[in-house]
Write a structure and sequence with these properties.
Blueprint: H1 3-24, H2 27-34, H3 42-47, H4 50-58, H5 60-69, H6 72-91, H7 96-110, H8 113-124, H9 128-156, H10 161-183, H11 201-236, H12 245-272, H13 275-284, H14 286-293, H15 298-325, H16 332-345, H17 349-361, H18 365-382
Helix pairs in contact: 1-6, 1-8, 1-9, 1-10, 2-9, 4-7, 4-16, 5-6, 5-8, 5-16, 6-7, 6-8, 6-10, 8-16, 9-12, 9-15, 11-12, 11-15, 11-16, 11-17, 11-18, 12-15, 13-15, 13-18, 14-15, 14-18
């Protein structure tokens, strides 16, 4: 395998992860500017994004299949150019229907990234945990930057710029990747850079069944929190903000940027310790934090959300590494597609949960208690994954081989 091509693949994969989360999460902050327009409430406007979030997950399985059967590099080019163009179109919308269609197109093209980009990265990585950690940081930066970029562009220029500017940058990146592929700088990898022994059929089935349930639950959490936080902070950090989109967006960015380093920590832990133990402990610790968030305001609320997101992000490299370990390489993108179908598609119930709970109660305490239950479920279900929580009694505190 050409090391230069592998490095470029890892670089474009990380940039893609940044754009995938950035472009999907521009709308929850822009929504604060649109609230009241077209005679629609916060919940009704938020529901316009539901189609995009559903397609972001539903499109993952066919995208993964195409990545395995056709070309991972070609699918990544389509991801960058298609998502960027759809975001620009969304910025030009002048009715709720056009806005909803634009958001749906962002979700459809954006669905390519997670199954294809993650499998592409795993195949080209010499050190999977570290590569997944670095890639995860890029995604977390995208999560964090979305609210800040959208809030700043919407307040300084206008809400349309919040879509058009990032969308154009994404499309340009796709053109650069296309030129790199055609020029031979980025070549298709035919085999894993660091192959591992194939897992038994029993462990493969067991892992996929368990993760199917846990990814649905943790996907509900990961979908609900980014969408809810701009409104949560606008209403719950009254002692720290002036109610504008820039302040609320800035604190949302702080939460996700703080959590960005957790990807690298999680990758380091996944490489050195039992992935199962890292995964379970990260979710156990979130349960009391959600309960605290249900009662908190201002600094305690901000602190609880920072801790919750840090732990959730820390668990991601272990989860992806578990799936890579127990999936045959020839079906890896398809397996990631199935994962993100659950985590990003079916679990879009989290988006509707935010809208229904806020419009029904005027607050978010019931949401945090519901998500505490989801986190507890993930931790318990994780006990049924293959392997133990430690390698041996004498090596309990030592890094895994």
């Amino acid at each position: 395998m050409d090391p230069r091509s592998a490095t470029l693949a890892l670089t474009f994969s990380s940039i893609g992860h940044f754009f995938a989360h950035l472009l999907m999460l521009l709308y929850p902050t822009v929504l604060l500017v649109l609230e009241g327009r077209w005679g629609m409430s916060y919940g009704d406007l938020l529901s316009l994004s539901l189609g995009g979030f559903v397609l972001f997950g539903l499109g993952a399985l066919p995208a993964g299949w195409l990545g395995d059967r056709w070309s991972a590099e070609g699918m990544m080019v389509i991801f960058f150019i298609g998502t960027g163009a759809a975001t620009i179109v969304t910025g030009l919308a002048d009715t709720p229907v056009v806005l909803a269609l634009g958001l749906a197109a962002i979700g459809l093209f954006g669905s390519i990234y997670h199954p294809v980009g993650t499998a592409w990265l795993v195949r080209n990585a010499a050190n999977r945990g570290r590569a997944l950690g670095v890639n995860g940081i890029a995604g977390s930066v995208g999560l964090g930057a979305a609210a800040l970029i959208a809030g700043a562009l919407a307040q300084i220029i206008g809400w349309r710029a919040a879509f058009i500017v990032p969308g154009a940058l994404c499309a340009i990146t796709g053109m650069v990747l296309l030129c790199s592929v055609r020029g031979g700088s980025v070549a298709a990898a035919r085999a894993d850079r660091r192959p591992e022994p194939e897992a038994s059929r029993n462990d493969v089935v067991r892992t996929f069944v368990v993760l199917s349930f846990t990814m649905l639950a943790d996907g509900t959490i990961s979908q609900a929190i980014p969408v809810a936080l701009p409104k949560v902070f606008a209403a719950g950090l009254t002692g720290l903000t002036d109610g504008g989109t820039l302040d609320a967006g800035g604190f949302v960015s702080l939460v996700f940027l703080f959590a960005a380093t957790a990807q690298l920590v999680g990758g380091w832990l996944a490489d050195r310790f039992m992935m199962k133990a890292v995964y379970i402990l990260a979710w156990v610790a979130q349960v009391p934090l959600f309960i605290i968030a249900a009662q908190a305001r201002d600094v305690p609320l901000l602190g609880a959300m920072m801790a919750v997101n840090y732990l959730a992000v820390l668990s991601v490299p272990a989860e992806n590494a578990l799936l890579a370990r127990y999936t045959p390489a020839r079906w890896r993108a398809t397996a990631y597609g199935a994962k993100f179908l659950l985590a990003l598609g079916v679990s879009t119930i989290g988006i509707k949960l935010v809208a229904v709970i806020y419009d029904g109660t005027g607050g978010f305490a019931p949401l945090w208690l519901t998500l505490a239950g989801c986190a507890a479920f993930v931790a318990v279900a994780g006990l049924f994954l293959p392997g133990g929580l430690r390698r041996a009694p004498s090596l309990a505190l030592q890094p895994a081989e």
